[in-house]
Amino acid sequence: MDLLPIWLTLKLAAITTAILLVIGVPLAWWLSAKRSVFKIIIEALITMPLVLPPSVLGFYLLLAFSPQNGLSKWLHNTFDVQLVFSFPGLVLASVIYSLPFMVSPVKSALQQLPVSLAQASYTLGKNPRETFLHVQLPNIKPSLLTATVLTFAHTLGEFGVVLMIGGNIPGVTRVASIAVYDAVEQMDYTSANQYSLVLFAITFIMVMGVFIYNKYQFKSPLE
Amino acid sequence: MDLLPIWLTLKLAAITTAILLVIGVPLAWWLSAKRSVFKIIIEALITMPLVLPPSVLGFYLLLAFSPQNGLSKWLHNTFDVQLVFSFPGLVLASVIYSLPFMVSPVKSALQQLPVSLAQASYTLGKNPRETFLHVQLPNIKPSLLTATVLTFAHTLGEFGVVLMIGGNIPGVTRVASIAVYDAVEQMDYTSANQYSLVLFAITFIMVMGVFIYNKYQFKSPLE
Amino acid sequence: QTLKVAIAANLQPVMKALQSDFKKKTGITIDAISGSSGNLSNQIKNGAPYDIFMSADAAFPTMLYKQGFSQHQPVFYADGVLVICGINKTAVNNWPSAIQTVAVKKIAIGNPAIAPYGKVAKEALEKLNLFIKVQPKIVFGESISQVNTYITTGAVDAGFTTLSLIRDPSNKTKLNWALVDSKLYTPIRQAMILLRRAEGNKQAIRFYKYLTSSAAKAIFKSYGYHVN
Amino acid sequence: MIKADIKKQLKDGQLLHINKAFVTGSITRVTGPSGAGKTTFLKMLAGLIKPDEGLISVDSNEWFNSAGSINLTPQLRKAGFVFQDYALFPNMTVMQHLKYACGDNDWIDDLLKIGGLDSFTDKKPLHLSGGQQQRLAILRALAIKPNVLLMDEPFSAIDVKTKMKLLADLQTLLRDMNTTVIAVTHNPQELDGIATDELIIGED
Amino acid sequence: MIKADIKKQLKDGQLLHINKAFVTGSITRVTGPSGAGKTTFLKMLAGLIKPDEGLISVDSNEWFNSAGSINLTPQLRKAGFVFQDYALFPNMTVMQHLKYACGDNDWIDDLLKIGGLDSFTDKKPLHLSGGQQQRLAILRALAIKPNVLLMDEPFSAIDVKTKMKLLADLQTLLRDMNTTVIAVTHNPQELDGIATDELIIGED
Ligand SMILES: Nc1ncnc2c1ncn2[C@@H]1O[C@H](COP(=O)(O)OP(=O)(O)OP(=O)(O)O)[C@@H](O)[C@H]1O
Ligand SMILES: Nc1ncnc2c1ncn2[C@@H]1O[C@H](COP(=O)(O)OP(=O)(O)OP(=O)(O)O)[C@@H](O)[C@H]1O
Ligand code: MOO
Ligand SMILES: [Mg+2]
Ligand SMILES: [Mg+2]
User: Fold this and answer.
1) Rounded to whole angstroms, how far apart are CA atoms D88 and D82?
2) In this predicted complex, what is the ipTM?
3) Nearest CA to ligand 2 atom 29
4) Is B2 among the domain residues?
5) Boundaries of each ABC transporter domain copy (chains D, E) (predicted)?
6) Closest chain A residue by Cα to residue C152
């Protein structure tokens, strides 16, 4: 078994998760506060990758990333960044694809905190940012962990989008899910089975780990 | 645009959702009650399709569904049911694939009900089944609706598994997500775009609908 | 950076031999990316970073050439051979009548729109006036590779594929097969092009030339392809 | 006569040990600091929490006996229970609450009058004030005509005037039914002149 | 002197109208039935809920004025607030709560002694009894040395003995700081002899 696709997948998942922690958590915070119709539309858009066929997402990304496209052309000429059939492109696609896995659980956890927690912090003179960092975020740690692990695992499992905009290039876009597909197509069922088992083992252990941790952890009275 | 794939997809999603309501809701109830290590393992397994690459699931289903396989052969000989390249096969795959979308939200909603609700019902002499039907289920309606809509929408979006076990048969297994992929591969971007827009519109309207409903509905104090 | 060669799925078995032979001769490593000819063409159109595209027909490379993805006309490198193949004998012995029996439940062919081997399979069935009759049994593979998968897992009883599958020494599944009469389909004239980004890439040009060398021809031949 | 001699290791480490007999028809006031185990005690009587060891018997029936492995379900004990958080069913109207508990319409009408909820029969809990919610919780527990009525802070949300009227009515009713009442309260003056017995849990 | 003349349409349809002045250093007891709007009134004073119209002024500063579109944030008002549900931070120990609120270690030590929490400084709320949690909520509100102290049912979970001791200590402290106190309570006897003024909300 060629381990390159496994490493590539882990790298993709790690980078995607890191990016989503940075942009997804503040986004969740923004969404958790007073709702407006505009926010509901944004939230629905964020949820879309959860339900939209990967082939539809892949198709639009292919069009957007294609060098024929103005923005992609400009990116390519200016920064020498090509998005289609490239690792940066996969990262961007994965960020979009896994966004709801980070945003939704964090958002609902924030909404489930009693409002009086933030209010108490305000009456102590603390601004919303301090309140978020010192009061709200520390009290949704289990949800944050769950969101992080599921985001990571879900990115490991990304397939359809990569199939369309990745192109199965070894070491660049040939992630494990594609390697399984490729091995099956090459009738190399031994490799397909090995990749599958590795992926299954990694994701299963992660999911189990989170579940058991969430069961046995010091339970906050808020959940 | 050939509308057959759209109808087929809607049919698949409707049947899958109906089946999952019947098996997923009791399963969620069972999981929501006192937890054991065994239940955690079951729960992790149910969560797997959310994070496992569709190509892995597709690979194993291909092996399991192949008429060479003992069980499939028996099914075939006894009931004349063929699972590979058939609509029943897609239904079975979709049920597995969308299971976590039904079970997880219903389970957490049940767990978030105050335990005293069920206890109150018990002290009135009601058994767990009556309590579930008359007290617990009616009070998680919004979550049940969300789970149903997301299950339906997520089944609409199924791609990787169908790609591997469907065989792209018009009217049987050529669902909309496959039609998009197929059109893109044929460089027929007009059709790809039409299918994509239809799928995007359907799923977006459903997701928005649930979000708005959940916002404006009569809010139960329990959520 | 290694060379990236996009290959039509039917070439998968022979490519392994070509790669190792070329590596032995030149020390150059090649990454092969396989798919149906149409799928690969679509990827190239959208910017896939491939150096050479080896198609299963001439139409796709010609289209890419006309659209400016190459500065050179496509070049023929081999002619493919269509076979019908299955795990059980029943489906392939006297296949035109066998595939009409109830014993044959599913028949795999490549997607005619993107896989040239599927296109000729359909053509052969149509010539025999069988296509309409067996249509309910037909399943479409995304590429000839997927057809091969369906055959070797036993998911279908029979499938139309390339002779190189049979000649592939690494294929351990015991297969029953029969040639499809070459009069039933237009010759599968497989062509390749050197893509724009490989322009001036000495290694790419070297492999491109190697493919029409006698050494390569011998390998193609041993996998059942016709070369001249 | 209800006899309870039970032990329970509480989650916070304390050992709760209660040994007490309640005369049939008596009204016992249970007091004690927060977290002492008052709610836990009531729930053990109702069969909602299992004691670690001991014995609970009601007249000649054993409800719980760790030695004989007897542990009746809450359904079989059918103790009326007024929960500290009311535990009303958000999906049910006042009337549906009472109909869920019992089928006797005359009895339901009587209860609605006693609780002063007769003009709110089609309201769901969300649209009731805190005091009305609490009264509904009491009526629901009474709807099953329980022999034992366990009440956890049953009057905390009811203002003094309403409480006095309700208590007077309840007293007659409970005397008629000969119900044994065990009521937890934080306010030591509450139930003065009504309670006939007292249990203090966890006072050091 | 705190002056409030504010109106608020409550979610249940009632109109809450309060017009009252609170003398600096006074202790006002607020009573009234459940749901009348006591908590809402305190939150409007603290800037956590916006009144529909009216005026709130503290000495010569306007905190809220619907005519002049003035509405100070809670951060600027810095009213000490003891929440009905305590609103303790589950992630913080007793000490961290007080340090989050103020930087004066001597003051924190004083508070811990008054609240009898000096031996629990490294405990998180989950490991405190209800009464200890409530005392921590009071100490946290005092940590910012507020001019105005708003307390919502601050003694409901504290047993009588502890309450008496705490009240005595608080009284001295509040007098020293000249803090204006507004305290909601359900128990009409509570704060007898301590409260210097009274506000009844929503009694018909
Ligand atoms: N099923 C259980 N098993 C063991 N301990 C429990 C159980 N349920 C609750 N406890 C613990 O018992 C202790 C006492 O809780 P309980 O609710 O009985 O106190 P209480 O006297 O009713 O207090 P309050 O006046 O605040 O209502 C708490 O520490 C709680 O965590
Ligand atoms: N931000 C708000 N705007 C309008 N109405 C509100 C707001 N917050 C709460 N209410 C409503 O005001 C009413 C009074 O609630 P409040 O909590 O002030 O009562 P209370 O007097 O404190 O009762 P309790 O004694 O039960 O604590 C309730 O019907 C509540 O729904
Ligand atoms: O080799 Mo093909 O392009 O799949 O027929
Ligand atoms: Mg209690
Ligand atoms: Mg209040």
Assistant:
1) 10
2) 0.85
3) E12
4) no
5) 1-204
6) A187
B86 CB contacts (<8 Å, ≥6 apart)?
B172, B173
Point out the ligand nearest to the CA of residue C143. 3
**Residue D42 CA: which ligand 1 atom is closest?**
18
Q: What is the pLDDT of residues D115-151, one digit of tens each?
A: 889 889 999 998 887 788 889 999 999 999 999 999 9
Ligand 1, from D15, D40, D153: best to mutate by most atoms within 8 Å of Cβ?
A: D40
Sheet with D197-200, strands from edge to edge, namely D80-82, D148-152, D180-184, D27-31, D197-200
- Residue C202, exposed/middle/buried by CB under 10 A (0-12, 13-18, 19+)? exposed
Residue C223 has which token pair? 């996998």
Beta strand residue intervals within C111-162, DSSP E:
138-141, 158-162
By residue range, what is the domain housing residue B127? Answer: 8-217
Residue C155 φ then ψ, to 5°: -70, -30
Radius of gyration of chain A (CA): 20
Q: Inter-axis angle of helices A37-51 and B189-216, to 10 degrees?
A: 130
Segment-wise mean pLDDT, segments of 10 residues, chain B, 223 residues: 90 97 94 82 89 90 82 75 88 94 89 89 94 94 88 90 90 92 91 94 90 62 30
Picking from E35, E156, E160, the nearest residue to D130 by CB comes out as: E35
Q: With the C-alpha atoms ordered C43, C190, C193, C67, is the resulting torsion angle positive or negative?
A: negative
The amino acid occupying position B141 is K
d(CA D142, CA D101): 9
For residue C190 and ligand 3, the question of a CB distance below 6 A is answered with no
Number of independent structural domains in chain B: 1
Q: State the Rg of chain E over Cα.
A: 17
Residue B3 inside a domain? The answer is no
Q: Give Cβ neighbours of residue B80 (< 8 Å, ≥ 6 apart).
A: none
State in Å: Cα D125 to ligand 2 middle: 15
Which residues touch D56 (CB under 8 Å, ≥6 apart)?
A: D2, D3, D4, D5, D6, D44, D45, D62, D63, D64, D65
Number of residues that make up chain C: 228
Tokens of D70: 């007897």
DSSP H helices, chain A, are 4-32, 37-51, 54-65, 70-79, 87-112, 115-123, 128-131, 141-156, 160-165, 176-185, 189-216
The residue count of chain B comes to 223
Query: Please, what's the b/e burial string for D179-192 (b: 16 or more CB within 10 A of its CB; e: otherwise)?
Result: bbbbbbbbbeebbe
φ and ψ of C15, to 5 deg: -60, -35
Q: What is the largest CA-CA distance in chain A?
A: 66
Distance D185 CA to ligand 4 centre (A): 9
**Quick check: is A202 in a domain?**
yes
User: Is residue B222, in this structure, part of any structural domain at all?
Assistant: no
Closest approach of chain E CAs to the CA of A204, in angstroms?
30
Strand partners, E56: E4, E64
User: Does the beta carbon of E39 sit less than 6 angstroms from any atom of ligand 2?
Assistant: yes
Q: What DSSP state is assigned to residue B170?
A: T
| Amino acid in the structure at residue D35 | G
Q: What is the CATH number of the domain that holds B61?
A: 1.10.3720.10
Task: List the one residue out of B109, B195, B196 whose CA is nearest residue B150.
Answer: B109
Q: List chain E residues with CB under 8 Å of D127.
A: 12
Q: Which residues contact E163 (CB under 8 A, 6 or more apart)?
A: E155
Residue A35 and residue E40: Cα distance in Å, rounded?
21
CA B68/CA B86 separation, integer angstroms:
16
Distance CA B62, CA A189 (A): 11
Tokens (6 digits) for C214: 């006698």
R_g of chain C, CA atoms, integer Å = 18
Q: Which pLDDT tens digit goes with each residue over A147-183?
A: 898 899 889 989 999 998 988 888 888 999 999 999 9
What's the one-letter identity of residue D13? G
All partners of chain D with 3 or more CB pairs under 8 angstroms: B, E
Task: Using CA atoms of D8, D12, D15, D21 in order, give the dihedral in degrees to the nearest 10.
Answer: -60
